[in-house]
Amino acid sequence: MRSPVPPRTLAAELAHAEPGSAIRLQGHVHRRRELAKVSFLVIRDRSGLAQVVVRPDEIDETGLPPEETVVDVVGIATANPHAPGGVELTSPVVTLLSEPAATPPVELWRPAITAGLPTLLDNAAVTWRHPAQRAKWEIAAASLQGFRATLDAAGFTEIQTPKLVASATESGANVFPVDYFGRPAFLAQSPQFYKQQLVGVFERVYEVGPVFRAEPHDTVRHLSEYVSLDVEFGFIRDHHDVLAMLRTVLAGMTDAIRAHAADALDLLQVGLPSIPEEIPTIHFAEALRRVGAPEDEPDLAPEHERLLGEWALQEFGSDVLAVEGYPMRKRPFYTHPQPDDTRWSNSFDLIFRGLELVTGGQRLHRYGDYIAALTARGESTAAYEEYLQAFAHGMPPHGGFAIGLERWVGRLLEAPNIREVTLFPRDVHRLTP
Amino acid sequence: MRSPVPPRTLAAELAHAEPGSAIRLQGHVHRRRELAKVSFLVIRDRSGLAQVVVRPDEIDETGLPPEETVVDVVGIATANPHAPGGVELTSPVVTLLSEPAATPPVELWRPAITAGLPTLLDNAAVTWRHPAQRAKWEIAAASLQGFRATLDAAGFTEIQTPKLVASATESGANVFPVDYFGRPAFLAQSPQFYKQQLVGVFERVYEVGPVFRAEPHDTVRHLSEYVSLDVEFGFIRDHHDVLAMLRTVLAGMTDAIRAHAADALDLLQVGLPSIPEEIPTIHFAEALRRVGAPEDEPDLAPEHERLLGEWALQEFGSDVLAVEGYPMRKRPFYTHPQPDDTRWSNSFDLIFRGLELVTGGQRLHRYGDYIAALTARGESTAAYEEYLQAFAHGMPPHGGFAIGLERWVGRLLEAPNIREVTLFPRDVHRLTP
Predict the structure, then answer these.
(1) Given CB atoms, is B199 within the 8 Å cutoff of chain A?
(2) Which of A211, A300, A381, B10 is 20 to 30 A off residue B71, Cα-Cα?
(3) Distance of alpha carbon A341 from its chain centroid, rounded?
(4) Does the CB of B368 have a partner CB in chain A at under 8 Å?
């Protein structure tokens, strides 16, 4: 590598360089254009793109490096109103920092990728380099920042709980078995039990981490490993306090995207969702009537969710709609019933642009209620002994929710397939790259 | 529950309450003291402790709730210089929010826990409620905040990479097998390959997430699942740039503990480590000489690390010491050799108070170097095809490091066993709670 003087300038900073000054850029060759009288190298680094002008006499016998080659370029900052940012580099000395790169599986310099999803996914390490791909994840990363910042400000403590668990207790199905030193273990489907127990310790907790579902269905909205944004907190009145916290969190995530990923939004030409001060809420029974479903339906079908999403947008101008009161028989045993009618629950799903994004609600918090709920379902309480210990020793009324990161970004960007917004997706067919 | 007026006051806010005003506290009964003339309830919430004074005529026939019961208390703020914060609650109306709690497995109100480690771990959901236990994790949570804030400010992008992987390529040993829809899969031992590939996309990346080691040794410093703080970035000169970034990150983590967990530090009576502006560095060969080990030793033994830690403190007043140049034959194939003597590597371990905390260094970045390194080790390049694709398509000089969260907190608090600072530890014997 060359002498470290001048130090590196990022592409986005070139616009502010003094014309005539010596500048060092470092990055990938995003595009190489060789014309008869002059050639161009567009350099891509973490901040953006910069243009380098190369005259024929400045090119040695090896020619200009091919696209994706990593280079160090020292040249002169020169004003040019047609260059990105109004400044380009002239009289360059180009040094290769990698070998000349092999031709990428897709043309990364084109404004839009036209390759199909399998090509994108099979070559993820390279295709994510495309600015429009990369922008998708920048929105995900900004969302994570906003999630944590909002909860840190509200007195929450971040937790990290085990993904290796001894029993598949929460649902029993769709778990991945692990050989744990010769003993059976499972990958956690959610941090549900742990986050509840830790409400007894920290009162307000959140966790960002992978969850695992051995999901046998190959759909555009399911993954077998995804990032779950989990929240749980104590001293609530009922699930409406949980929904109010969810609203604060979603607004914080949206604000963070605006603050940290504005360029990504611009590039993708997407608008941020409208999250009203109070999330419009409809009871499950009323939701069934509204979509014309039989009143004994235990769940909402994807088509129902889509219809409800449209209705919320028309009726309330809202991209989100909470459906509360889901039937107890379809909710997990720790769900708190609706006090005035125990067929229904103090739980909700949040529908975001017609797709279920969040499940949340109030949980049981009295030991006796847990024993009764498990017994009524014919389940052994012994299997839950360690979890139940927290309740025997006093737990506040509490509740929480979980947001799927990839679903959030997918609906935000209106991506047809959740795999498009996942760095390295895992599903029933795909375990690589 | 009672009427919501007055709203809840946190224990730590009681000190600022106007004497004579009605106050509502909500929390666990931390301690119940029944004396002949007057009784006390100490209420614990997420902010701290508050004292409630109960006269005999204010106690009904059920008596005062036992410790750990969750209560709502409305009373009158009353100045008392002997109470925590100088204000206590008198004339209380106590309402139970949980059932009367079962007697905890350890007395949580005592200033120090005297129970042994198995009792602590077997009853984690309850024992973490002890203020001194809880303080340990508050330091961990503040460390995570500092880690991310430092890297966000330095232009890094947070990534989330899969924990389910198709092959046990990085080391081949100590991996957990998973049954993945009938096919073999493994739990990732580190995000190493993914974070490197994503340097080609985002240039600077970090990840906080679980890693899995089927570690058969039952020691005080090993877990089979732990939280890895991973960093990787491009356009470095060599491993000294990586070490400088590590220094910035450790300083940021230390600052965040000071900012967000000062009470926890006070309670545990521990001082923050001294992280010098430049981390003192010793070459591996010199380190062997200094501890009197044979010059062909391929690694440092725990006793060597301890001696080197003592030396760094005496010689440089530093709690950290970098040992650079570890023998290539003991480092993974992606390690960059030391240019002037390829027996050694451009990699380092960071010793923190006598224990290895971080491994890091410069990686190979040229495709040809990877092919040569794998071939020299007799390994098939086909097994690494997807990983190597990133290098074939151009990668900058890069490097990174990984910090074990539990080791960091463990050494910071000088905990004899890493399990003491892990919420729900996993090891060869322990898979629950």
Answers:
(1) no
(2) A381
(3) 36
(4) yes
Backbone angles phi, psi at A77, to 5 degrees: -65, 125
Look at residue A236 and tell me whether its pLDDT is greater than 50.
Answer: yes
CA distance A16 to A5: 18
Q: Judge whether residue B66 has pLDDT over 70.
A: yes
Yes or no, beta carbons of A125 and B390 under 8 Å apart: yes
Chain A closest-CA separation from residue B325 CA (Å): 21
In this predicted model, what pLDDT tens digit does every residue of B106-120 receive, in sequence order? Answer: 999 999 998 999 999
Q: d(Cα A221, Cα A384) in Å, to the nearest integer?
A: 31
Nearest by CB to A46, from B145, B204, B214: name it: B204
Count contacts between A and B (CB, < 8 Å): 268
List of domains in chain A: 11-96 (2.40.50.140), 124-421 (3.30.930.10)
Task: Show residues of chain A in contact with B45, CB under 8 Å.
Answer: 203
| Measured distance CA(A257)–CA(A139) in Å, rounded | 6
Rounded Cα gap, residues B210 and B422, in angstroms: 12
Query: Scanning every residue of chain B, which has its alpha carbon at the shortest distance from the alpha carbon of A211?
Result: B163
Dihedral angle sign, alpha carbons of residues A112, A118, A123, A128: positive
Cβ B394–A28 below 8 Å, yes or no? yes
Stated pTM of the model: 0.97
Q: How close is the nearest chain A Cα to the Cα of B275, in Å?
A: 25
In this complex, do A181 and B145 lie within 8 Å of one another by their Cβ atoms?
no
- At residue B235's C-alpha, the angle toward residues B234 and B241, to 5°, is 90
Instruction: Tell me whether 0.95 is exceeded by the ipTM.
Output: yes
For residues A287 and B18, give the distance between their C-alpha atoms in angstroms, rounded to a whole number: 48
B 2-21 → A contacts, CB under 8 A: 4, 8
Res. A147 pLDDT band, cuts 50 70 90: very high
Q: For residue B214, what are its two tokens?
A: 């089927």
Write out pLDDT tens, residues B124-166.
999 999 999 999 999 999 999 999 999 999 999 999 999 999 9
At residue B1, the pLDDT reads 42
Q: Tens digits of per-residue pLDDT, A194-218?
A: 999 999 999 999 999 999 999 888 8
Tell me the longest C-alpha to C-alpha distance in chain A: 85
B87 bridge partner residues: B79
Which H or E element spans position B6?
none
Which positions ≥6 away from B36 have C-beta within 8 Å?
A: none
